[in-house]
């Protein structure tokens, strides 16, 4: 059952502050890796997604119609429109383009009742290299460390691993779909029964049966692949995956890495390395990503890239589960109360304080409004006197500069 936080249609002030703090942490870490922020349109042409199975399932998208009768969709994905923008601009991948985003995505695919989720992620447009892929994975790990999670794992696989085995089997899409589901759910018994019905070689069947077991410490997984004779079939994919892992070792982050050769991402545009991150006590991945070198081809441009997206809502839920929310000090507003005859002077004081960054609320003593109890600092402007009240202490003043000094001395 999903945590109630994820069903709530709104967040209270405390959760909003925690969310803002988390987003600020994400933004700062993105920037330390040289990424610049980008924004795409919330409403996109339906034609951007229809007609290509790699682009996504249009049945899961929320569609609307504009006044001209054109069908639009609420942004279901971020990688696709960003890739289109880069392709349209004919940007040179040699420029090492690094972009990050904090945006909402919409659709009917989410497991909870919400139709809107916030994603925070990066897109790194550059030629494929193990070092480049390792850096993106290191960034994802770095963020989980920044968030304070004591234990987490990043599963790394390769989209080409399963495809290399499928190339030996010559199966239709209808035959592949159940097999893919069995591998994702590690349903060994039904997978074995299903494979027995398929017209493929026994060596390939045996190889596929071993896929769900290829999970764990990288060296152990590699040894398992050799023992089961899989390395000859998927040698190119394994060699590249090992090169990426060796590059991650240079960051000293391999304690958080496991290999999962049964990892199959639902986004069909991934081409090479894929990964997903889990934290304890949360069943779903908080981050998912991978390399998608062929996505730009759909838009007429060859722009290899790798990226990932954090589910901010799930990340917030995970932080709450782990007790990682810090006590945030909320600036209490200063209440300025005034006699109507002193309105001009009182509002001038309020404006001066706001210009200096203070939160201020104003009340006329001639109406029925009262300062809230949490407003512990009061300034009362009467006909012949100006007083600042801090708790039980009252201090008279004549000029706004005196107020500023008194507030600074009290840390308000």
From TrEMBL:
<comment type="subunit">
    <text>Heteromultimer composed of HisG and HisZ subunits.</text>
</comment>
<keyword id="KW-0963">Cytoplasm</keyword>
<comment type="function">
    <text>Required for the first step of histidine biosynthesis. May allow the feedback regulation of ATP phosphoribosyltransferase activity by histidine.</text>
</comment>
<comment type="similarity">
    <text>Belongs to the class-II aminoacyl-tRNA synthetase family. HisZ subfamily.</text>
</comment>
<dbReference type="InterPro" id="IPR045864">
    <property type="entry name" value="aa-tRNA-synth_II/BPL/LPL"/>
</dbReference>
<dbReference type="Pfam" id="PF13393">
    <property type="entry name" value="tRNA-synt_His"/>
</dbReference>
<keyword id="KW-0028">Amino-acid biosynthesis</keyword>
<dbReference type="InterPro" id="IPR004516">
    <property type="entry name" value="HisRS/HisZ"/>
</dbReference>
<dbReference type="InterPro" id="IPR041715">
    <property type="entry name" value="HisRS-like_core"/>
</dbReference>
<keyword id="KW-0808">Transferase</keyword>
<keyword id="KW-0328">Glycosyltransferase</keyword>
<keyword id="KW-0368">Histidine biosynthesis</keyword>
<protein>
    <recommendedName>
        <fullName>ATP phosphoribosyltransferase regulatory subunit</fullName>
    </recommendedName>
</protein>
<comment type="pathway">
    <text>Amino-acid biosynthesis; L-histidine biosynthesis; L-histidine from 5-phospho-alpha-D-ribose 1-diphosphate: step 1/9.</text>
</comment>
<dbReference type="GO" id="GO:0016757">
    <property type="term" value="F:glycosyltransferase activity"/>
</dbReference>
<dbReference type="InterPro" id="IPR004517">
    <property type="entry name" value="HisZ"/>
</dbReference>
<feature type="domain" description="Class II Histidinyl-tRNA synthetase (HisRS)-like catalytic core">
    <location>
        <begin position="17"/>
        <end position="313"/>
    </location>
</feature>
């Amino acid at each position: 059952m999903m945590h109630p936080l994820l069903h709530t249609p709104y967040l209270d002030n405390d959760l909003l502050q925690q969310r803002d703090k988390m987003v600020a942490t994400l933004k700062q870490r993105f920037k330390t890796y040289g990424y610049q922020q980008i924004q795409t349109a919330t409403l996109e042409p339906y034609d951007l997604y229809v007609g290509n199975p790699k682009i996504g399932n249009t049945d899961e998208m929320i569609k609307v119609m504009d006044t001209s009768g054109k069908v639009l969709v609420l942004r279901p994905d971020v990688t696709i429109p960003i890739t289109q923008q880069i392709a349209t601009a004919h940007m040179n991948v040699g420029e090492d383009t690094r972009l990050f985003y904090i945006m909402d995505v919409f659709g009917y695919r989410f497991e909870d009742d919400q139709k809107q989720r916030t994603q925070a992620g990066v897109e790194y447009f550059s030629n494929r290299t193990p070092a480049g892929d390792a850096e993106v994975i290191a960034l994802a790990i770095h963020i989980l460390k920044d968030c304070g999670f004591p234990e987490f794992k990043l599963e790394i696989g390769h989209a080409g691993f399963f495809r290399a085995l499928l190339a030996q089997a010559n199966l239709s899409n209808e035959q592949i779909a159940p097999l893919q589901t069995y591998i994702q759910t590690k349903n060994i018994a039904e997978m074995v029964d299903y494979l027995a019905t398929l017209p493929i070689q026994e060596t390939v069947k045996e190889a596929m049966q071993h896929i769900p077991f290829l999970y764990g410490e990288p060296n152990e997984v590699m040894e398992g692949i050799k023992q089961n004779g899989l390395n000859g079939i998927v040698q190119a994919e394994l060699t590249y995956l090992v090169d990426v892992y060796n590059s991650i070792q240079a960051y000293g982050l391999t304690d958080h890495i496991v290999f999962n050769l049964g990892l199959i991402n639902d986004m069909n545009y991934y081409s090479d390395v894929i990964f997903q991150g889990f934290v304890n006590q949360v069943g779903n991945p908080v981050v998912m990503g991978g390399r998608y070198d062929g996505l730009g081809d759909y838009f007429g441009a060859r722009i290899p890239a790798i990226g990932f997206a954090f589910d901010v809502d799930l990340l917030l839920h995970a932080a709450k589960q782990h007790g990682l929310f810090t006590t945030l000090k909320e600036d209490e507003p200063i209440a300025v109360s005034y006699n109507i005859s002193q309105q001009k002077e009182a509002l001038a004081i309020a404006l001066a304080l706001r210009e200096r960054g203070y939160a201020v609320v104003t009340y006329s003593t001639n109406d029925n409004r009262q300062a809230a109890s949490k407003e512990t600092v009061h300034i009362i402007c009467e006909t012949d006197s100006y007083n600042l009240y801090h708790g039980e202490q009252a201090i008279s003043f004549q000029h706004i500069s005196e107020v500023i000094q008194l507030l600074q001395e009290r840390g308000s």
